[in-house]
Amino acid sequence: MRAAAVAIALLASASSLAGQVAEPSEAVELEGFRLSAPPALVLLGIAPSSVSRPNTPRALIASLVSGAGSSGLVPNGYAVETSPYWLSRHPAIDLDGYYRASLGKRLLYFTALSAATSRPSSKDSIAPDARVSIALRTLVMNGRPSRALTAVTDTMRRIQLAYIEQYRRWETAQASSRRLSAQRTLLARNEELLSTLTTKLIAGDTKLRDSTLRVLARRDSARAQVAAGESADEDATRLEKQMANSEERLSRLAKEFIDRDAEPDGFVLELAAGVRSMFAGGEWDRAQTDGIGIWVTPMYRVSAKDVEIVGVVRYLTRVAELDDEDVFDAGARAGVTIGKGTFSGELVRRTVRDTSSTRWAALFDYPLPSRLHLVASFGSDYRLPSGRRPVIATLGVNLGLGAVEILSR
Known about the structure:
Elements: E1 8-9, E2 20-25, H1 39-44, E3 50-53, H2 57-68, E4 79-82, H3 95-99, H4 103-110, E5 112-118, E6 130-144, H5 147-178, H6 180-202, H7 209-259, E7 265-279, E8 287-302, E9 307-319, E10 325-338, E11 341-352, E12 355-367, E13 373-380, E14 389-398, E15 405-408
Parallel strand pairs: 2-14, 3-15
Antiparallel strand pairs: 1-14, 4-5, 5-6, 6-7, 7-8, 8-9, 9-10, 10-11, 11-12, 12-13, 13-14
Helix pairs in contact: 5-7, 6-7
């Protein structure tokens, strides 16, 4: 389910309720706690314009070399995430083996490493401090393929098998079709020779009778070969159109499925952990540990009933937005899709030092044409130090701007 992230919000005020302040608050949704971006980015609290995702050893080495920089200083805004297992191809893995893998294989399939750097410019220092984070995430439980995924996979498999059969028949027809020009030339020569012999035979030259009969037999054989070649050429043309249609159907199926929700069904459990270090003056040899992060994200989903339940537990140390305090968040979100609209509710409890506060929100998301989304939310945000609690009240349209671009190499 898509998070109701608001790009253009019309903030509405609400009446004061027992301990609340009638001031709108930006809706920070539970989705923001989940690891939709690499955990290394979350540890730094940044969103670079691109995340490199190398899928070959050579691309990984090139990415790391470019990220290390040549000046001996930590670069700014570098981010990479890769899955070691998928740096090489594994064509033998099928959908059933992928989802029903043992724990050891799941750790191989779903473990990803990420790294990110941040060295913002500063007016107070020529060489500002830099931060680098390294993190790992994996799926301990990966659910099962949804009905939509199973259906599209079965359809694609049928089309692929049909395509293979069409290609085999096309190869045979194409081989016969390639000889058609030579066969037509041979037929023309036999026709011309037969015409000459027949003329002389009619003129009374009986000695050419046997030669005429032999040429007649070769002419008939050449005619049969030409007819077979023309039929093969027609078959090759027809099969080429069928293969083009199959390729178009496969491309359309892939695109349609990418545009749809491809989350697995059943129970999914994601674990992630990372460490952040600070480099004084941005120099690689002046490192010290600056913080850690741990995430536990369980999810249960039933796509057939359009129901999803997500839980999040995370622990972050030295959070800049909270005056370098440690924070512990635990929450859950439940959502249901009715028609095209998605209704969801979430509750998050945050602990900073010895103080705990709760935030709840009701959310609505409705897709519009051109990848736009109508979004709305209402709820109560975390309690302020003054004891008041801001109201969450937003209404707007998500334009889909500001998403992190994924670069494959």
